[in-house]
Amino acid sequence: MPVFDFSNTMSEKKEEGACTYTVRYSGGDAATVERPILLLDHKTRQWKHHSGGFFTNQNVRTAFEFKEEDGTFCSDILEIDARFVSLIRWLGENHIHVRLSGENREDGYAVYKIRELAGAAGTKLSAKDGFLQFMIERLLSSSVPEMGEEEMDEDSAEDGDSMKLTSLQSLTDFMNCAGKTIPDNIRLWARRNLAVARSHEVSPEEKRHAQRALSMMLNIQWKNNYFESIDPVAARKILDEELYGMEKVKQRIMETIIQINRTHTLPAYGLLLCGPAGTGKSQIAYAVARILKLPWTTLDMSSINDPEQLTGSSRIYANAKPGIIMEAFSMAGESNLVVVINELDKASSGKGNGNPADVLLTLLDNLGFTDNYMECMIPTGGVYPIATANDKEKISAPLMSRFAVIDIPDYTTEEKKVIFSRYAMPKVLKRMGLRQEEFSMTEGALDAVMELYQGTSGIRDLEQAAEHIAANALYQIEVDQVSSVQVDREMVERLLA
Quick check: pTM over 0.85? Predict the structure, then answer.
């Protein structure tokens, strides 16, 4: 049975039609008393830390109805974080019973948490409080749209991290709540696909594809291309940890980082690391991703023979699926990521229905990427490509023009000796559980290793040699019951020759 409230507050609602709040255009990935989700008027009454009620329909009044023990009280909304305007409006239109957590400031009641109250008379959300928390977390981590400590209660909070948008209801609710935090073209695309998924005039196969595409697209956090400043000292420390020597390479990467700090955007060109096999090109790429604090994905061009592997297949096929680039966005869960393109020099040797290198050009231009399955232009402004290659002569001129080229020279014999003794061998010994007092190598043994692998490029062969020597030492300790092993030149020549 509906309850009719004939108090003055209800009559006031009919009289008030204007928007009472201002919109705050400021970011932050957490809501606090200083930076709340919204601010409510508290001139008539100081509100409790936890207060339940309903947001009013904003077409009638932009306010919140507090359900107190002594009655219902209406409080105007004074300020809203720009990212939450659509969510607050949607909560009001659907009459969702919520609990606010906040504190009374001088300028109003600052709300930093909103939870759904189960078992209330209002409409229930598609996934109870889990959906609401998912929405709040998503909006807090969203970019701000352009202009034009919480107490735990007796009920354990549902974490939004496990919430995934799969059902039509949750997809619909998300679109209504997310508002302009979703890019315009994706929002229009989502509406069309939602119409297809709901239609009774299309085949079940088409509806399934539309819903699958919607779920994949809306579960991605679409961010703008603004990048926070990177600590140069911490970045240099990561490079020194991962790479020995290569001062020119490290300097070039540091220059890129300083550029990002000045512009707060990614450089116009990605990095192309060219050099012999085994010189640590992939390791450099992963170190850069670590410095940028971005998720990363790998495209191995030697295994991609058909452009469709990158662009996805058309929905006309029953077994259609998105391309691996779109799947990379989905796995990362956000639009800002590092794409490591391994063996770029093999990208022009497609054996299928086209050249995979042509597809890469659209991705590298950062103007948007079209996936055949998604049927939508995917924003790529937050994608930073890092490619590796052994022979840059085999890379086409159009591809080369999209990268800043860094040549990775092979290591000198002295550098290989240092890497073998200080990095490769200690890492292997640690992995095998060999203690320092159980294993040692003479200087002659080190020289013998260098002589045996003098004609090889990179350090992969040296790492395998370290593995072989350490395994033999472990065998002697465990089987022959020796207390320690000292590796000399003779032993190295016997094992590796």
Answer: no
